Amino acid sequence: MFQVDVDYLKKAKKRREYAPTVISIVLALAGVVSALPIVYLVVTAFKPAEELFLYPPRFYVKNPTFKNFSDLVSITANTMVPFTRYLFNTIIITAVYMFALIVVGTLACYPLSKHRFPGGNALFKLVTNALLIISGAAAIPSYIIITGLHLDNTYLVYIIPGLANCTCMFLLKQFLDQVPDTIFEAGKIDGASEWQLYTKIALPLLRNAQATCVILTFPGIWGDTATSTTYIYDEQLRTFAFFMSTLQGGLARTGANAAASLIMTLPSIIVFVVSQSSVMDTMAHSGIK
Amino acid sequence: MSKKNRKNVDQAGTAPETNEVTRSDGKKQKDYTKSYFRYTLHEMWTHRMSYVMIAPFFICFIVFALLPLIASAVLSFFYFDSLSWPQFRFWDNYIYLFVEDSLFLKAFSNTLYYAVIVGPVSYIASYFFAWFINQVPKRLKPIYTLAFYAPSLCSGIAMSVVWLVVFANDSQGYINSLLLNAGLITEPIQFLQSVQWIMPVIIIVALWSSLGAGFLSFVAGFTNVDKELYDAAMVDGITSRFQRLIYIDIPQTMPQLLFSAVLTITGSFTVGALSQTLVGHPSPEDAGLTVMLHLSDYAGQRFEVGYASAIAVVLSVIVLGIGRLAFRLLSDKG
Q1: Do A102 and A180 belong to one domain?
Q2: Beta-carbon neighbour count of residue B48 at 10 Å?
Q3: CB contact under 8 A, A41 and B159
Q4: Where residue A255 sits, what CATH number does that domain have?
Q5: Which stretch of A150-154, A180-184, B4-8 has the lowest confidence by average pLDDT?
Q6: pTM of the complete model
Q7: Residues A130, A265: one domain?
Q8: What is the DSSP letter of B280?
Q9: Which among B58, B132, B253 is the nearest to A23, CB-wise?
Q10: Between these two residues, B75 and A20, which has the higher pLDDT value?
Q11: In this structure, are A86 and A41 located in the same domain?
């Protein structure tokens, strides 16, 4: 009897030996396939003109150059609005949007998670179901509302309509649900007001979830071109992404094009790398129960 | 506790029969526990701070998400060119949509083709790659997570510079050049022009960038699974990874499965911009036309807002229906 058990364990051990190898190989291959186009984008951005149109095409770059980036600057030198203005717009818009999104989202998630008030659960259920709303479906009524509120042709149009982000709100609330109520009760006994409970307890505890909201919304707002084309008539108020999209097209500029794309993509990846551990911590609570 | 004592406690716990209660300062006050309506009002007043806090979010939500959606649903019964006053048309938009508009059928079948492949494949791929990542050494996890998640951080427009070269129609294209050199084809395939290749190319590019928030949610969800469950299962005779997946991992990550399903469903039915950047709009023989592009045609180009709204309503109902089905299947609350 004892002998059989040992055999069984030996077999079990043997069987488990090759599984990690298979998993590593599959992951490594798939990871390379997944990362390859981005690597290619980086490589292309540094290719000199004579390497861009080689036949047969070559993946790697032999003589890396910054010419594509300097081309980009020289192309933009003749435009009416200097490209630094577009960049400034995008940075301001992104920063203000992120700040406002987090303030609005955390403010709303705290009572929904920790207060029992009439309608609270119904409202959260509404948010959960709103995850299924197709944002582009009601474009014209949105347009009428936004222009009716005179938000068009201002910086506000980039920020306000996107503040009610249901995915972020959902993640924030699920994350706060994991925090025991007793912390807040203790705060209340110590005489803290609701506002203090929010700023002193909820906000610091939600730091990881805030990072997640940033990474989920950052690519969208950083790369937003639709708002610029739809609601902004003043060239001075348009975004960097819009400017980049006007440059694209025309094979002669493939190099500069890749450089522009790289500039557009890199910030999102950097933000993700920086905040990855916080994001993972929040996502652990992302489930809909 | 004796029977007598318990009876006393019960009596003390019941509310007095009058409609008024005596406050601590001796004054009489309406008893809010008597009328549900009054009780609700009272509760709302005591929680007024909660309403103030959720107000900014829900005002934005109602004004910029819910109201347009309702307006869209109402407008779908009207003829509206966004200039003159809407004219009531009842079912006309819907009848035209289902009976006469052959382009809608084309757009819908393309979208369905896309959704049926990209939805399930990306969902399952997200789950399995996350499951694999969970089993590699801890220090490698962030690298793999980044490698798989990075594509979804790149917008379609930014990556078009890559895809247009990879799938280029002439022999300069990477795939054509590879196939030509391997001797599999004699002349380059028109990936971005020929009708039978347009949707597959869009689907391939979409799959590449489809490991998004749902994938992250899975990766994180797996780290949450209690490791003691594995030991307990081992005692019960569950030794293989596959058995652990079926009996432990999937049930334990059910909430993440639902969250990710919701994101996948909405994502796979709203394809549009990607098709536009890859094959242009209008595409050759409308082979890359999707419902979202068809909708924006009517809303933005032809100013037939009522009809565009009808398209939006049909799409929303489909997404909502499938989404509710996912809730029914994957949630214990429904």
Answers
A1: yes
A2: 11
A3: yes
A4: 1.10.3720.10
A5: B4-8
A6: 0.83
A7: yes
A8: -
A9: B132
A10: B75
A11: no
Does one domain contain both A138 and A268? yes
User: Which of A41, A110, A132 minimises the CB distance to B319?
Assistant: A132
Q: What is the pLDDT of residues A115-140, one digit of tens each?
A: 888 888 999 999 988 888 887 778 88
| Residue spans per domain, chain B | 22-75, 92-330
Tens digits of per-residue pLDDT, A189-239? Answer: 999 888 999 998 899 888 888 888 888 899 889 888 888 888 999 888 888
CATH number of B92-330: 1.10.3720.10
Interface contacts (A, B; CB < 8 Å)? 301
Query: What's the domain count of chain A?
Result: 2
The dihedral sign for the CA sequence A93, A105, B147, A131: negative
Same domain, A23 and A162: no
Enter the tokens of residue B174: 């990477």
B296-326 pLDDT per residue, tens = 888 878 888 888 889 999 999 999 999 999 9
Q: Which of B64, B258, B259 sits opposite A142 (nearest CB)?
A: B64
Question: Closest approach of chain B CAs to the CA of A27, in angstroms?
Answer: 7
B30: DSSP letter: E
pLDDT of residue B3: 45
Q: What is the pLDDT of residues A242-263, one digit of tens each?
A: 887 777 654 456 777 788 888 8
CA of B162 vs chain A CAs: smallest distance (Å): 6
**Which of A16, A24, A284 minimises the CB distance to B223?**
A284
Is the same domain home to A240 and A131?
yes
Residue A169 maps to a domain: yes
Cα distance from A192 to chain B (closest Cα, Å)?
14
Residues of B in contact with A127 (CB under 8 A): 61
Pick the range with the lowest mean pLDDT from B46-50, B53-57, B108-112, B329-333. Answer: B329-333
Give pLDDT, residue B22. 65
Residue B84 tokens read as 């003159």
Contacts of B208 in chain A (CB under 8 A): 33-34, 37
Does the residue A68 lie in any domain?
no
- Residue A277's domain comprises 80-283
